[in-house]
């Protein structure tokens, strides 16, 4: 046996480990069972319902639009009165036509495909203008339908069938030979039914898509959710045909304009394929525009929400983010658009105005890949409930703006996500997600539409107990099997096939389940009948298709020979044929990322090799039991007697055997069809991580602070104004009666030299007063909020404040100058934009990136405080700006144009303290007690007391006049040791207030990428004459990116002239001095030092609790 033959599996015999004869997986049996399943539904549809949209499987009647109740969108959104099930089934027929069983069961799928095409043309015409069929002239129908559903089912189904008909998608044994007709045109002649195919399906797709275009007549560019195939959009407020009365009412009730991210952003595949095949690029432009409009409205944490209004482009409140209903196919089309567009030439635009509306990234395949990559990262960070807090990871519902968890339910539509993860190469994530859906199916023999997760095993939502025959779970199973060839996944497919046959069979098709918990009483009209009288078109168009591809291992679409093919969200194969892609050597058609040509292309994970004996790696996963525990599956009785009729084979029953209702193993090893030879002989489960949580409840502090006689709020009530919502989290003005919910999560510290990574576990405040917080939200505590807690004495075991002995912040009020010649609000906005860009560039220079160290935590805190203080009215910038030139520009002249007045902006610069015998405390006079309460220009030290020395202070002694006049000295790193620099500073008596007290060393950039390393003063401080300094100088080290801010705040400066002499320069009024400043002397420039603190509970740091 080889790894290339995954269908062969070895079974252990008895209790020893010897290998028995290999067992061949019954591909053929299940492939034929799936064909039978499809044809049972398709034949009955054609017999009892065609040319209507769907068949009612229980009553054997057609299902049509509910014209008596236009509000029945469950039917009317989908059923457009255009033979929907046939259109949705054509691509499945084409795929079945490549099967080896074709014709042996009395059905010829290729002939049925060709007959279906002929029937469509007979009823709707050949797509030419004015051509009519028996039922309609193309799709000129008075049907109000949903744009999204009509696109993916109707347009996508017609396009896919056309690609099969002309041979761009393969059908084994089918030759699409074009021949010339008498009129000189070319066509394909089908001998079976004597039909001449010349692109009728493509023209019909063009007609149907054209009838969807009125939905794009919005001011935002987002399409309306619905359109009438004949009349357009007269029912919308902004439609050109709307009729309004004098009293403000309209002739028709107000139409809902709410669409969703999936509905508006999932048109690119079908519309792009249509544009490339027809040459009309309007479809592609509109679809891409809608996609990017949705993405451009993502939150600051890169999440998209569900509902969005087409007229205002505002998210529907409350905006929730997840991976399921309303959002699902947006992510799917981001990745698949990258695949479809790769190698294709960009669109050609008519004029400059159109190029402005459709920027270059609209056509860049890599831009769509970036959307998926960014979304995937945001999903994992904010939406995924990791194994640290859940029995098994799952994707819940989170707040769109903050990422805070809101609901812990998963829906049936989310089952597509493992397949998408597989397509993007994230195999382990995909398997982990797929395990949960498999356990759910095993428990309910279907997937409920919505399932709530609780500590006791979860429950089915009473309003969402149905299963509509959805394909997403079997679709993901197919993707995973193609990537891993793990036989465990074939058992999953077998389980789905058996359960569908057992529970959903009806005389005229396959019924949906109205209640997955109901008994399977097949008596017609039985009160316990779990079935509903509907077979959605996607059951034949997707569910049966993916199931068949799973069991047809050598199908042409299962290989790698179809370049650029993707399956739409309706399961229709689509591609842009090579002849429509443009020149392959075109630079714009390259799939290499334009941002970094040297970056290697991403590669997918290699699936693990088959295991000895059991073969299956999935069955041997150490966390296989975890989804069983989450779904309470392990408590289901072994081999339950599920109700099901055991009838002999007959065309009038599902032919269910005993094997369809008995598990060969038990429900702990799921799926229930898993054979014993796939169970590892010595399998074990990894222990389930139990989340460590804690609660901090603070006492009533008002009495302690104000006294017993003061008016107090009711006992246990949080005072009014104690909590304030800010952009970055929660600002706590008082801790009185406040409760913190905390959970322990892992963090990783990487050593600066790359020697390794250490895991630590910190507390995270996950909720305040029953309000959940996002993973990146912080709790910002004002110092005054802690009055009465006794933290001055260190606090208690459960809550204590700890001073950071390594890091402080230099607080600078520096001038911000608008560019010369630009005045007014626009100039200020431009300056702010430039500063924002500088902040982003400087972050990478001082930050130790993804490591959850104290250093990176505080750099995050500084960013949070910046936004917070801005909300409170202070114009403040936390991060240091980018590097200026290393030496001041001494040749600069005074600008000829007037300089606009400068404003002040507060900047916080991270500074690291030294260690060793020579380390001295910082001067208390520079310390800030309350940053929020300190207004601009009121910091402890004015700029006249700050001197910037553009030298390393290694070759000369600082003049005594500078040491006496200034309190803070800024010097450069390098040239000598830190102790030698301090030894070149004269001793100033401490009797007065004047005199140098703090030395700020500016890093030379050598620490970039590693973060600043704490300086070592290995000897006690000495004077220039070698005597011990009685009062040591305080010292801090700052990053090179802080130079511009330090220059801007300094009131004096100088440099070494190269001959050992010091040149001193004071800042000039109204012009550029030697310091390199543009603004001249600006009143209010000042400086202070802010201490850093963190909080601990039970000896563990609280990572997101910050004191301001």
TrEMBL record:
Residues the record marks as active site: 149 (proton donor), 328, 449 (proton donor), 472
Ranges of biased composition (kind: Acidic residues): 832-847
GO cellular component, as recorded: endoplasmic reticulum quality control compartment; membrane
Keyword field contains Repressor: no
Subcellular location(s) of the protein: Endoplasmic reticulum
Keyword terms: Calcium, Endoplasmic reticulum, Glycoprotein, Glycosidase, Hydrolase, Metal-binding
Protein name per its UniProtKB record: alpha-1,2-Mannosidase
């Amino acid at each position: 046996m080889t790894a290339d033959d995954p269908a062969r599996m070895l079974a252990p015999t008895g209790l020893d480990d010897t290998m028995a004869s290999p067992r061949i997986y019954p591909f053929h049996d299940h492939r034929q069972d799936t064909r039978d399943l499809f044809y049972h539904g398709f034949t009955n549809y054609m017999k009892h319902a065609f040319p209507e949209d769907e068949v009612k499987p229980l009553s054997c009647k057609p299902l049509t639009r509910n014209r008596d109740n236009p509000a029945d969108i469950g039917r009317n959104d989908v059923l457009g009165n255009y033979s929907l099930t046939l259109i949705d089934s054509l691509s499945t027929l084409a795929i079945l036509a490549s099967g080896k069983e074709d014709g042996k069961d009395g059905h010829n799928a290729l002939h049925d495909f060709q007959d279906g095409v002929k029937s469509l043309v007979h009823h709707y015409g050949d797509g030419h203008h004015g051509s009519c069929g028996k039922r309609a002239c193309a799709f000129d129908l008075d049907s109000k339908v949903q744009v999204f559903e009509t696109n993916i089912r109707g347009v996508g189904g017609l396009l896919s069938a056309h690609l099969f008909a002309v041979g761009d998608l393969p059908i084994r044994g089918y030759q699409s030979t074009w021949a010339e007709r008498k009129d000189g045109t070319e066509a394909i002649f089908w001998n079976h039914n004597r039909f001449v195919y010349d692109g009728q399906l493509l023209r019909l797709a063009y007609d149907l898509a054209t009838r969807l275009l009125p939905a794009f007549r919005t001011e935002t560019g987002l399409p309306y959710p619905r359109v009438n195939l004949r009349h357009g959009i007269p029912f919308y407020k902004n439609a050109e045909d709307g009729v309004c009365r004098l009293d403000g009412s309209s002739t028709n009730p107000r139409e809902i304009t709410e669409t969703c991210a999936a509905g508006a952003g999932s048109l690119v595949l079908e519309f792009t394929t249509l544009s490339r095949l027809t040459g009309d690029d309007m479809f592609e432009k509109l679809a891409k525009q809608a996609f990017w409009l949705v993405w451009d409205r993502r939150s600051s944490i890169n999440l998209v929400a569900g509902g969005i209004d087409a007229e205002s482009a505002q998210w529907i409140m409350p905006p929730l983010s997840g991976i399921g209903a309303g959002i699902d196919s947006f992510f799917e089309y981001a990745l698949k658009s990258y695949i479809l567009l790769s190698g294709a030439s960009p669109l050609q635009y008519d004029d400059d105005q159109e190029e402005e509306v459709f920027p270059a990234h609209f056509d860049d395949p890599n831009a769509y890949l970036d959307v998926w990559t960014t979304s995937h990262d945001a999903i994992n960070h904010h939406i995924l409930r990791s194994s640290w807090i859940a029995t098994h990871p799952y994707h819940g519902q989170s707040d769109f703006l903050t990422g805070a968890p809101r609901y812990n339910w998963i829906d049936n539509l989310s089952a597509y996500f493992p397949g998408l993860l597989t397509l993007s190469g994230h195999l382990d994530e995909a398997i982990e997600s797929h395990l949960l859906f498999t356990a759910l199916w095993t428990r309910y023999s279907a997937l409920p539409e919505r399932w709530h997760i609780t500590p006791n095993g979860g429950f089915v939502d009473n309003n969402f107990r149905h299963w509509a025959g959805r394909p997403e779970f079997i679709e993901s199973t197919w993707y995973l099997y193609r990537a891993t060839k793990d036989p465990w996944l074939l058992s999953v497919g077998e389980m789905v096939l058996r359960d569908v046959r057992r529970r959903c069979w009806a005389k005229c098709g396959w019924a949906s389940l109205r209640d997955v918990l109901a008994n399977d009483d097949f008596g017609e009209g039985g009160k316990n009948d779990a079935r509903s009288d509907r077979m959605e078109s996607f059951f034949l168009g997707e569910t049966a298709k993916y199931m068949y591809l799973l069991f047809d291992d050598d199908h042409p679409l299962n290989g790698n020979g179809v370049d650029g093919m993707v399956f739409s969200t309706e399961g229709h194969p689509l591609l842009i044929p090579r002849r429509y892609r443009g020149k392959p050597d075109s630079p714009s058609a390259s799939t290499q990322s334009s941002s970094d040509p040297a970056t290697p292309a991403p590669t997918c994970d290699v699936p693990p090799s088959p295991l000895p004996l059991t073969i299956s790696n999935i069955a041997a996963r150490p966390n296989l039991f975890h989804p069983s525990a989450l779904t309470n599956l392990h408590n289901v009785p072994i081999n339950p007697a599920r109700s099901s009729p055991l009838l002999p084979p007959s065309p009038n029953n599902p032919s269910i055997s005993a094997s369809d209702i008995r598990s060969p193993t038990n429900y702990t090893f799921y799926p229930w069809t898993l054979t014993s030879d796939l169970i590892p002989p010595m399998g074990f489960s990894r222990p389930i991580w139990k989340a460590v949580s804690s609660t901090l409840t603070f006492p009533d502090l008002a009495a302690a602070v104000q006294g017993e006689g003061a008016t107090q709020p009711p006992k246990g009530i949080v005072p009014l104004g104690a909590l304030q919502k800010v952009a970055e989290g929660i600002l706590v003005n008082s801790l009185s009666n406040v409760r913190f919910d905390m959970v322990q999560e892992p963090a990783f510290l990487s050593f600066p030299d790359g020697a390794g990574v250490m895991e630590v576990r910190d507390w995270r405040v996950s909720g305040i007063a029953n309000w959940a917080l996002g993973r990146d939200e912080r709790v910002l505590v004002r110092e005054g909020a802690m009055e009465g807690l006794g933290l001055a004495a260190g606090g208690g075991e459960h809550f204590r404040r700890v001073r950071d002995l390594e890091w402080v912040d230099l607080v600078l009020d520096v001038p911000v100058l608008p560019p010369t010649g630009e005045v007014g609000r626009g100039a200020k906005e431009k300056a702010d934009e430039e500063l924002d860009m500088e902040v982003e560039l400087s972050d990478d220079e001082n930050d130790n990136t993804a490591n959850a160290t104290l250093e990176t935590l505080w750099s995050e805190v500084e960013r949070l405080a910046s936004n917070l203080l801005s909300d409170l009215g202070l114009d403040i910038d936390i991060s240091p700006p980018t590097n200026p030139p290393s030496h001041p520009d001494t040749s600069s002249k005074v600008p000829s144009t007037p300089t606009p007045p400068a404003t002040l902006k507060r900047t916080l610069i991270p500074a690291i303290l030294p260690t060793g015998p020579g380390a001295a405390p910082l001067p208390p006079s520079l310390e800030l007690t309350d940053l929020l309460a300190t207004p601009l220009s009121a910091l402890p030290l004015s700029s006249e007391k700050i001197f910037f020395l553009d030298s390393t202070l290694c070759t000369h002694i600082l003049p005594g006049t500078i040491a006496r006049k200034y309190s803070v000295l800024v010097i450069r790193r390098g040239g000598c040791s830190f102790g030698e620099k301090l030894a070149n500073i004269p001793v100033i008596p401490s009797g007065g207030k004047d005199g140098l007290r703090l030395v700020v060393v500016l890093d030379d950039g050598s620490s970039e990428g590693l973060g600043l390393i704490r300086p070592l003063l290995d000897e006690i401080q000495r004077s220039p004459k070698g005597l011990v300094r009685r009062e040591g100088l305080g010292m801090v080290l700052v990053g090179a990116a802080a130079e511009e801010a330090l220059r801007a705040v300094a009131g004096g400066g100088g440099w070494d002239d190269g001959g050992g002499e010091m040149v001193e320069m004071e800042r000039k009024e109204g012009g550029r001095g030697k310091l390199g400043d543009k603004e001249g002397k600006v009143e209010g420039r000042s400086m202070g030092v802010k201490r850093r603190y963190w909080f601990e509970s039970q000896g563990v740091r609280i990572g997101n609790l910050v004191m301001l």
